[in-house]
Amino acid sequence: MNLSLVIPVYNEEESLPHLHQALHAALDNLGRSWEVIYVDDGSGDGSLAALEKLAAEDPGHVMVVELRRNFGQTAAIAAGIDHARGEIIVLLDADLQNDPADIPMMLDYIDQGYDVVSGWRKSRKDNFATRTLPSRIANGLISVTTGVHLHDYGCTLKAYRRDVLTGFRLYGEMHRFIPVYAHAVGARIIEVTVRHHERKYGKAKYGLERTLKVILDLVTVKFLLSFANKPIYLFGGAGIGLMVLSVLTLIYLMLRRILVEIPVLTSPFFLMSVMFFILGFQSILMGLIAELLVRTYHESQHKPTYTVRRVIQRQDALTSIIPVNES
């Protein structure tokens, strides 16, 4: 299988027949084998029945994964990726706001050697105050924090080589951070402008509350990318900083005692100094414990601390290139 499309579905009964028709129009003439994995995320309308009908009418292309309840978009995407067989995986929404006609263009960039092709809804057709503006703020924050500069992390329409999707699991709202994880293993990323349509059927499933979840997930992602393999750098750095602050406070109290004869023990700064020192020491101990956990994790599962794109081997005066799946 060359191409797998993963589409999470939640209450999109009316959109599904039109979406599937658009997929055929976009992909049938590409000369690629393809499949589409629809993941029903606990829909409460007739979406599952519509998907069963599509699977019966088009068994050569359609796979339906039914989740037991509504787990959220990230979990649905993870389930679709787990069931996909394609060398290239394309994600898109089921609400017809993403345009399947953009997929061939994105595949061309994959053929040019890129590992991730990320869609950018440059002319977004959503409510500005409740969706577009919070999204722009979140995109800027993610770009600055992670160092992976994309205009539109929230655009589901993205194409990936399968090997950059291995080695991590998705939780919370972390599907939008897949390009960040891919960048961490050396993926080549390009952002391209894609079309975006107004919603024709149903209603939006997310509002402003999603922004807070994204910010909290961003903290997790930053920690995993920067300190997962060396947590002592975070905990130890914070601990040393607190201990230095404690020592500086004590020096200030002693100088004040010598110069203006104010007692040290009666000052609230003395208690703060002791507290900073204790917290700093505990933070360093937490870093050492985290280091032991990291080593146990890697060594027990034989997980390397590096990723390999390929191995070039010279044998019998001939050069051979051995592809290696990143893990």
In short:
The chain is 46% helix and 15% strand.
What does this structure look like?
With 327 residues, the protein is of the alpha/beta class. Helix content is 46%, strand content 15%. It has 2 domains: 3-227, Spore Coat Polysaccharide Biosynthesis Protein SpsA, Chain A, CATH 3.90.550.10; 232-300. It contains 9 helices and 9 strands. The strands form 2 sheets. The protein has a 7-stranded mixed beta sheet with strand order 3-2-1-4-6-5-7, with helices on both faces. α5 packs parallel to α7 (209-227) and α8 (232-260) packs antiparallel against α9. It is elongated and about 90 Å long. The model has no long low-confidence stretch (mean pLDDT 85).
Describe the structure using short key phrases:
327 residues; alpha/beta; Spore Coat Polysaccharide Biosynthesis Protein SpsA, Chain A; 2 domains; two-stranded antiparallel ribbon
Catalogue the unreliable spans. none
**CATH homologous superfamily designation of the largest domain:** Spore Coat Polysaccharide Biosynthesis Protein SpsA, Chain A
Shape field: elongated
**What's the overall average pLDDT, rounded?**
85
How many β strands by DSSP?
A: 9
Radius of gyration: 25 Å
Number of alpha- plus pi-helical segments: 9
Share of residues in helices = 40-55%
As a percent range, the share of strand residues is: 5-15%
Alpha-carbon distance between the two ends: 21 Å
Biggest beta sheet summary: 7 strands, mixed
What is the CATH C level class of the largest domain, in words? Alpha Beta
What is the CATH topology classification name of the largest domain? Spore Coat Polysaccharide Biosynthesis Protein SpsA, Chain A
Number of domains: 2
Order of helices and strands: EHEHEHEHEHEHEHHHEE
Order of adjacent strands in the largest pleated sheet: 3-2-1-4-6-5-7
Q: At CATH's second level, what is the architecture of the largest domain?
A: Alpha-Beta Complex
By helix and strand content, what is the structural category?
alpha/beta
